[in-house]
Amino acid sequence: MSNSVLDIVRNSPFGSPFRPRCEGLKVNENRTISAASTLDETSCEFGSMKYFALCGFGGILSCGLTHTALVPLDLVKCRIQVDPAKYKGIFNGFRVTIKEDRVIGLTKGWAPTLIGYSMQGLCKFGFYEVFKSLYSNLLGEEKSYLYRTSLYLAASASAEFFADIALCPMEAVKVRIQTQPGWSNTLREGAPRILREEGLTGFYKGLVPLWARQIPYTMMKFACFERTVEALYKYVVPKPRSDCSKPEQLAVTFLAGYIAGVFCAIVSHPADTIVSKLNQDAGSNFMDAARNLGLLGMWKGLFPRIIMIGTLTALQWFIYDSVKVYFRLPRPPPPEMPESLKAKLASLQ
Q1: How does pLDDT run across 252-302, given as a tens digit for each residue?
Q2: Whose C-alpha in 151, 249, 303, 328 is 20 to 30 A from the C-alpha of 279?
Q3: Is the pLDDT of residue 22 over 60?
Q4: What is the 8-class DSSP label of residue 140?
């Protein structure tokens, strides 16, 4: 079965543009001249296990490192969400936190953040590549182009479903450490405490609101990024991507990632606030937390989250694409209309 899945992925219209298509040109019986292959430019075949493994590794670095680097901002954001009377804004939140816990207090929750979001990144980016290739082959080349936005949305939603299952236990520990003073200060203390007091279900009670937050976020993150990259090369960048240097391509990646991140923050913020409130109150459920917050309360902390998620998403895409460049992975250009579809449209005119 695994071989059939790999065959489907390899035949995807989103496959590598570097596959050699030329056959040897025989000049005489003793000598064969072949067209120069560009396969050496890539370290592996698109859709191979090595390709997906390295994409997953890129996801580990992009999500794990960026989320950990932004723990201080995330901590203040969570505290604004669950206690807006005390933490009245982003600058006030930093000032109150430093006053009570000193500067070291801004690093609370770094360990579950690093582990949890590394696992999430592995599944998010690795499975996105798998599902995008799988679904595109099921649709066929023409429909994959025509419905590419829906394809990005479906592939990212599928990947995030599994990514959140990997993230949820560490997210539960992180939020408690950051929002419940005196609860526990480290992962080593917090994880056994949840297991002892609430059992395994304590780690996953926030899974449904986590899906509600992360799946729309990831759908926006990937679909908006993919279409923004396409638009930037079409309308802004004055030359084709193939003529751009690697640093220029990575600059486009960063810009598209930041634009996508702003939309991500807005779409997913109410659910993010509910997740923070839910993990703060041990006996509450999704509906209780939403009712206690109210409609306006769900939007508390939006400004710091836009800053955090915009920067975060831009850096994640930059790191992920840099990993692809470093390991010489296939990086297909933005999709173009298939020749068969161009011929059909021309025949209708």
Answers
A1: 999 999 999 998 888 888 877 777 776 666 566 667 777 777 777 888 878
A2: 303
A3: no
A4: -
What distance in Å separates the CA atoms of residue 222 and residue 218, rounded to the nearest whole number?
A: 6
Q: Quickly list DSSP for 224-249.
A: HHHHHHHHIIIIISSS-GGGS-HHHH
Model confidence, pTM = 0.77
26 within 8 A of 9, measured Cβ to Cβ = no
Secondary structure class of 27 (helix, strand, coil): strand
Structure tokens at 144: 């994959």
Q: Report the candidate in 15, 10, 36 with the shortest Cα–Cα distance to residue 331.
A: 15
CB 222 within 8 A of CB 231: no
30/89 Cα distance (integer angstroms):
78
CA-nearest of 225, 217, 220, 223 to 255 is 225
Which tokens hold the place of 274?
Answer: 């509910």
3-state helix, strand, coil in the chain (%, to 5): 75, 0, 25
Quick one: which of 74, 79, 170, 181 has its CA closest to 120? 170
8, burial (CB in 10 Å: exposed 0-12, middle 13-18, buried 19+): middle
Residue 216 identity:
P
Asked if 60 and 122 touch (Cβ cutoff 8 Å), the reply is yes
202: nearest Cα among 159, 173, 223, 182: 173
Quote the DSSP letter at residue 335. P
> How high does pLDDT run on average in the chain?
84
DSSP 8-state class, residue 147: T
Chain segment 129-163, per-residue pLDDT in tens: 999 999 999 999 999 999 999 999 999 999 999 99
CA nearest neighbour of 135 among 11, 310, 307, 269: 11
